[in-house]
Amino acid sequence: MKFEEIKKLVDLIDASNTLTELNLEQDDYKIVIKKEKEILHAPIQSVYEVPQTLHKNVQVPQATAHVPKEAEVETGKTINAPMVGTFYKSPSPESAPYVGVGDKVNPDSTVCILEAMKLFNEIQAEISGEIIEVLVEDGQMVEYGQPLFKVK
Predict the structure, then answer these.
(1) Is 99 exposed, middle or buried (0-12, 13-18, 19+ CB in 10 A)?
(2) Rounded average pLDDT over 147-151
(3) More confident residue, 63 or 14
(4) 0.70 exceeded by the pTM?
């Protein structure tokens, strides 16, 4: 077998998303071409909500009992990326987004898809509330722990 033919086989394996190994055996030679798979380890992050409660015996002055709407948005909860990947707001380009501003979510609500290494992972909210802001663009790469949505 000529060098150019072997190079074409190597290029074919390299360009393929599904083919990872090629074994070719002839009478006088044997060729084995293997493509190493990149393994991505992303730790899983959980979102915990810290309750903001007051003891019954604590007196709160009237002036501090009212929190303005703007401050609530600033201290809102976020839904964060549990892994590195590409953010998609809908299951396909023709489909409506999973969630938008004003939508109510619960812990089991699918809010987006993160693609990593050709695997499409549906991401659940893991918290309850109302989406008040989408923090990333469709098709944008996101990092582990990056906030994706603001929730109140």
Answers:
(1) buried
(2) 95
(3) 14
(4) no
Closest of 69, 47, 50, 51 to residue 149, by C-alpha: 47
Residue with tokens 């909860």: 77
Q: pLDDT, tens digit, for every residue of 17-71? A: 777 777 778 887 788 877 766 545 555 554 555 455 544 454 544 444 444 444 4
Hey, what amino acid is at 109? S
Classified as helix, coil or strand, 110 is strand
Instruction: Work out the angle at residue 85's Cα, subtended by the Cα atoms of residues 82 and 87, and round it to the nearest 5 degrees.
Output: 90
Which amino acid does the sequence have at 35? K
Q: Which residues contact 133 (CB under 8 A, 6 or more apart)?
A: 73, 101, 149, 150
Q: Which long-range contacts (CB under 8 A, 24 or more apart) does 35-38 make?
A: 38/117
User: In angstroms, rounded to a whole number, what is the distance separating the alpha carbons of residues 116 and 142?
Assistant: 10
Which residues in 1-118 belong to E strands, given as ranges?
Answer: 21-25, 30-34, 77-80, 85-88, 104-105, 110-116
Neighbours of 129 (CB within 10 A): 18
